[in-house]
Amino acid sequence: MIELRVNGETHQLDIDPQMPLLWALREHVGLTGTKYGCGIGQCGACTVHLGGAAVRSCSVPVSAAADQDITTIEGLADGPRGAVGSAVQQAWQDLDVVQCGFCQSGQIMQATALLATDPAPDDAAIDTNMTGNICRCATYARIRRAIHKAAQALG
């Protein structure tokens, strides 16, 4: 049995301890906002917060996530970074960032982690911290504007 604390709720799961956290979240906890992209931790679609850090859930075994707080896109606004997450989500809506939407939950999770540690990032900091999150629709300029907008709203 593996115990996972996801979005403030505890889940007892009878699963392989080496199963990627992504699949435990999607298939066993039922939270499908975290997306499968590449499966090798390079695209960022599966980004969640683990113990407050943005991580690629496709590359983290559930055994490494046990006894840590896990926040997914579904719990972002209500989690420990709720104000930041809400500001980021609102900026995404205000600036119509999303095109296909597939990568956006990972983008929002990564942006929230960035703003939690750097409340006023410049373009270089945004580019450095968001580089590993791939958007096939190339909404990068809108993503950057939304991060600045969220930072202003929080500031």
TrEMBL record:
Keywords: 2Fe-2S, Iron, Iron-sulfur, Metal-binding, Oxidoreductase. Residues 1-76 form the 2Fe-2S ferredoxin-type domain. CDD domains: fer2 (cd00207). SUPFAM superfamilies: 2Fe-2S ferredoxin-like, CO dehydrogenase ISP C-domain like. Pfam families: Fer2 (PF00111), Fer2_2 (PF01799). It comes from the Bacteria. InterPro entries: 2Fe-2S-bd, 2Fe-2S-bd_dom_sf, 2Fe-2S_ferredoxin-like_sf, 2Fe-2S_ferredoxin-type, 2Fe2S_fd_BS, Beta-grasp_dom_sf, Diverse_Oxidoreductases. PANTHER family: BLR6218 PROTEIN, OXIDOREDUCTASE WITH IRON-SULFUR SUBUNIT. This is Isoquinoline 1-oxidoreductase. It comes from Thiohalocapsa halophila. The lineage of its organism: Bacteria, Pseudomonadati, Pseudomonadota, Gammaproteobacteria, Chromatiales.
